[in-house]
Structures are given as structure tokens and as C-alpha cells.
Specification:
The protein is of the alpha/beta class. It has a single domain (4-276), classed as TIM Barrel (Alpha-Beta Barrel). 43% of the residues lie in helices and 18% in strands. A 4-stranded parallel sheet has the order 1-12-9-8. The protein has a 4-stranded parallel sheet with strand order 2-3-4-6. Helix 2 links the parallel strand 2 (33-37) and strand 3 (62-66). Helix 3 (78-98) crosses helix 4. The mean pLDDT is 96. It binds zinc ion. The site of zinc ion has 4 residues, from loops.
């Protein structure tokens, strides 16, 4: 049986305990993944990180980590690139403590560069990052650059695939809502999802996937706002995606990024189980 897991992006809605024990709660409500959010800075200390890891293993909850938002590996400003690399280093260290199987991050912005130039700058920064990781003895990591939602951001599906082809220990995070927003609504049915999976399989040999889902509002510039799962006037469509996951038989982890995180993750899981049966 393929492993398909669902969980919240960040602390569950009704959980008020410590982060270290959040996986007790996540397992109790019936979910089996958790994306720890370091989106406003990596603040977790080693001891609590280790406890979070232990607690997630005990509950068989798969942990991933979202690195800080303020990262731009293709910036024209040296200090921005330096700080971005630094945040990814801190993320990798914390990911080791908490046992995160993926470190999700948004690679950067095109700003004044052409997509090609921005990609080159991004790769140069990744080279520096990898050097620093190895000089600090951090070897056990998988960075997971995410498909981004705004057209001004580096990170369409092709770019994310290329970054992962060029770097060991890199695997994609596919945010289906971001792909949908970026393409201004061009994901309509299962065939559209199927093309995404085929591309990942053909170009990266994948049979496992780390992914994000939310309902999303967009403009002609791409992503505008995340919405609840119930707000079905916003895409992307969920049912054809879950059908595609079932038919592909891949191991998929789907992190729910709606405003209702774990509550909506449970609804997605329920719909998935209905399709399975
Ligand atoms: Zn996302």
C-alpha cells in the first residue's frame, strides 16, 4: 500500500500545548504529517527540537519543516544572499534536531533578472550553501524548493525540477495551489494533474512527493490569498488531484495550508478515503 499522509502547516487550530508534543495531538485527531513552521525565523532550541523528533517518531507522524519566508537566493544584493544562505543553514541544523525529512523553502525572486540569469544566481548561492553545510558537518538534509505562487517569484515547475536535477539532496515541494495561481487557473481536471506527475516522474524519477494544498485566490500576477477548503468557488479542484494520487500509487505527503490547517487536512483525508473505497 502506498503511504499517503495528511497534516497541517503549522500548529493545529485547537492545540494549545508545547510544540514538542504537538504530534501526540496530531496523531490523536487522526493525521500523520506535520510541517513545522519556521517561517518567521528559526527559533527552536536543540533540546526541544530533539523532543519534537522523539515525539513525532513515537506517533509515526512525518515531520517536515518550512524555512523562513525571507529568502532570496537570486538577489542582486550580496547581503540579502548572505542572510538567505544563513537562514537555510540554520534551518538545516534545526531540521537535523527535529528529524525533518524535508526543508521547504521559496528560492527567490527574479527582480531585474531574466529567469535564466536568476536561475544562475540561485545556483551560485546553492553552491555556497552546500560548501558551508559540509564545512559545518551538516550532511543529513533534503532541501525541498517549493513551486511558488507569484509570477515575480522564481519557482515554476520547470525551474524547481531543474534545481533538483542539479543538486544532490534536493527534492521538490509541489504546491498545487501555487501552480494553479501562477498559471491563472490552468489546472482544471485530472489530466492537468496527471501531466504534473508525469513530468516529475520523467525528469526526476520520482515516485514520492511532498506537496502543499489550499484553496487560493489569484490575480493576473498570481497568488493573492489562501482560502478555506469549503470555499469551493476557489480552486484548484481537489477531487481530481486525489484521484490522480490514488491511481499513480505514489507515496504522497500533503500538507494543508488553508486557514483551517488540521481541520481541513482531516476533510481532505476523508475525501481521499472515500475515493479509495
Ligand atoms: Zn506552500
Amino acid at each position: 500500500m502506498p503511504q499517503v499522509r495528511f497534516g497541517p502547516a503549522g500548529r493545529p487550530m485547537r492545540y494549545s500545548g508545547v510544540t514538542e508534543l504537538a504530534c501526540d495531538y496530531i496523531r490523536e485527531i487522526g493525521l500523520d504529517a506535520y510541517e513545522y513552521q519556521a517561517t518567521y525565523g528559526v527559533k527552536i532550541k536543540k533540546q526541544s527540537g530533539l523532543r519534537l523528533k522523539e515525539n513525532s517518531r513515537k506517533n509515526d507522524v512525518l515531520l517536515s519543516m518550512h524555512a523562513p519566508y525571507y529568502i532570496n537566493l537570486s538577489s542582486n544584493k550580496d547581503d540579502v544572499v548572505e542572510r538567505s544562505i544563513d537562514r537555510l543553514l540554520q534551518s538545516a541544523r534545526a531540521a537535523e534536531w527535529i528529524g525533518a525529512y524535508r526543508i521547504v523553502f521559496h528560492p527567490g525572486f527574479y527582480t531585474k533578472y531574466s529567469p535564466n540569469e536568476a536561475m544562475k544566481r540561485c545556483q551560485n548561492s546553492i553552491d555556497v550553501l552546500k560548501e558551508q553545510l559540509s564545512s559545518k558537518g551538516i550532511n543529513d538534509y533534503t532541501f525541498a524548493p517549493e513551486t511558488t505562487g507569484k509570477k515575480s517569484q522564481l519557482g515554476n515547475l520547470e525551474e524547481i525540477i531543474k534545481i533538483c536535477q542539479n543538486n544532490d539532496n534536493f527534492a521538490p515541494t509541489v504546491d498545487f495551489a501555487h501552480l494553479y495561481a501562477r498559471s491563472v487557473g490552468e489546472i482544471k481536471d485530472q489530466d492537468d494533474y496527471s501531466r504534473i506527475f508525469s513530468k516529475l516522474e520523467d525528469e526526476l524519477g520520482l515516485k514520492t512527493l511532498h506537496s502543499h494544498f489550499t484553496r487560493i485566490e489569484y490575480t493576473d500576477k498570481g497568488e493573492k490569498k489562501h482560502h478555506a477548503l469549503m470555499e469551493k468557488n476557489y480552486g484548484p479542484p481537489l477531487e481530481p488531484l486525489l484521484k490522480e494520487i490514488v491511481e499513480r500509487g505514489w507515496d504522497v505527503t500533503m500538507i494543508c495550508e488553508t486557514p483551517f490547517r488540521d481541520e481541513d487536512a482531516l476533510l481532505i483525508q476523508e475525501e481521499y478515503r472515500n475515493i479509495l473505497n
